[in-house]
């Protein structure tokens, strides 16, 4: 019987291995996917194309990332066709332990990310648990380079984290948190690629503290945040009545991640500079007559205001692109995603309200505005997919 073994490191270091849940004859998604040769062929063709093309140095980051989006969309599109019935959830032999794993993920999400947690409470219980599991893995990955032990992290440690990810996707989770994600990826058509790419983003954070141009910054934003969008779409679900191409929905999810990360960078300029990190593109700083020293000095000048206005304008463009895709999501997912989008986007308004002083003032959205955003998000969420038929599905054959 294929099963998920929970490897629990006990006090004193010995490892207990407990069957968490056995899938009676069930194949894990990665094994099950082999049953769908079309998916493997589509993915192989796109991988071959993307690796051939990706070798050409001329590819921009947007083109490189779009290759990933095409592959993700192809995988999900084929799974949607194959998934004739609701995903069976049987075969789990220890629901209590699994539900405790999900509950622990929910506690971490509530503790570390109140805004996202608020969004997940607007979801169906099944989707909420899956997003909690994804959130915890993302947070743990970010904490490797952003958390209290960041100074000890090495590329080798990231290699081990990547191996642990492979094990998780193959149904061998290391701990309770991994077990929740192992169940989530066996239940939803979530692919491992965005998770691997997020780890690549952490490698980038280890070796890079400056970004020469927006092409470099875009790739970083894809790695650490656009990936979250790609991870989330299979769980959020695309509305059955949507006429949009899968690629366009994935592009919107990618755009939301990019928009969030750009906003995060603009919010944390002072905090990041104090850690010796400047994510803002060097060429754009120079064009605005600004230097790293201006950022370390932390003075709000007219040059800085003018530079920040352009940066905020670009971040808003990515939010606008993301908004095109939210209405294509499953009805049950639109409210939390609208809420999360509107709340994060308002950080840009807060930076403007602070007269662009993101050196010493942390822009945030107050409780009143958060509360007002919920009914506004609900009103947006009622609007469903565009009914006009769009470009036919990308010909993956
Ligand atoms: C309801 C909802 C949107 C849920 C998504 C929750 C989720 C899985 C979030 C993961 C966030 C995370 C911890 C990622 C690790 C790397 C990281 C820290 C990314 C930055 C997030 C901000 O974290 P925080 O505010 O805590 O910042 P600090 O670490 O304190 O500096 C990021 C800015 C990226 C977050 C990216 C997203 C939430 C993208 C979400 C996109 C979707 C859900 C796609 C929706 C689909 C369409 C079609 C639009
Ligand atoms: Mn962080």
TrEMBL record:
EC numbers listed for it are 2.5.1.32
Q: What class of enzyme is it?
A: transferase
Q: In which pathway does it act?
A: Carotenoid biosynthesis; phytoene biosynthesis; all-trans-phytoene from geranylgeranyl diphosphate: step 1/1
List, in alphabetical order, the GO biological process terms annotated in this UniProt record.
Answer: carotenoid biosynthetic process
According to UniProt, the reaction catalysed is: 2 (2E,6E,10E)-geranylgeranyl diphosphate = 15-cis-phytoene + 2 diphosphate
Annotated GO CC locations: plastid
Q: Which UniProt keywords apply?
A: Carotenoid biosynthesis, Isoprene biosynthesis, Membrane, Transferase, Transmembrane, Transmembrane helix
Gene Ontology terms, MF aspect: 15-cis-phytoene synthase activity; geranylgeranyl diphosphate synthase activity; squalene synthase [NAD(P)H] activity
User: From what superkingdom does this record's organism come?
Assistant: Eukaryota
Bilayer-crossing residues are 6-23, 217-239
Family matches, as Pfam families: SQS_PSY
Tell me which family the UniProt entry assigns to this protein. Belongs to the phytoene/squalene synthase family.
Tell me the protein's name: 15-cis-phytoene synthase
Q: Which organism is it from?
A: Trapa incisa
